[in-house]
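The following record pairs a protein chain with its ligand, coenzyme A.
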Amino acid sequence: MQISIEPLRLEDARAVVDAEDEQTVRWLSEEKSTIEGTTEFIAQLSRDAELGKPKRVFGIWLDGHCVGTVDFDPDVTDGLEPGDVNIAYGVAPWVRGRDIAARAVELICATIRDRAVGTRAVIRCDARNAASSRVAEKASFEHLREVQIDTEALDDGSPVVMHVYDRNLL
Ligand SMILES: CC(C)(COP(=O)(O)OP(=O)(O)OC[C@H]1O[C@@H](n2cnc3c(N)ncnc32)[C@H](O)[C@@H]1OP(=O)(O)O)[C@@H](O)C(=O)NCCC(=O)NCCS
């Protein structure tokens, strides 16, 4: 099983859309993706990078196929501290449970360290998303704290609780 991460390209849009299911929409993309919209998203990322924005998205490649995405974004601040580099990820339902997300997180941590993006990687998991918490634990992150997110709320109006995990990259 060969796993790598590669900068996301316009031609990966179809694979990203194919890899999405209701769990991806719920916890990562927030709305159902289209190939057209995802292509524009990737183009916008490229334009933003040229303007100096630090967010980077990578395709997760398994044996020659793009099966998901993993990204880092030092500009995410909700529930985090200055200098933290937020990581988010999703993999296709048909390859879940094979340590692919945990391995992709390991790889993006090495990229963050090599590019000197930051010294601490952080993963925020909704308290209801047990699989994502397991990915953080398996990728050697430690549970740092729980936070209430101000920008989101549950249907009953109560705040969303996130587990925050961190990993020192020094
Ligand atoms: C979270 C996600 C990326 C995990 O991908 P994956 O490649 O299956 O992850 P791994 O195989 O590395 O590990 C998944 C772990 O979660 C566990 N898991 C899966 N569903 C679970 C559940 N409902 N409750 C508890 N644990 C669960 C698996 O058993 C596994 O742990 P184990 O190895 O100890 O058995 C994938 O489920 C996904 O894409 N979900 C939708 C998007 C998402 O939630 N992204 C996270 C936002 S930061």
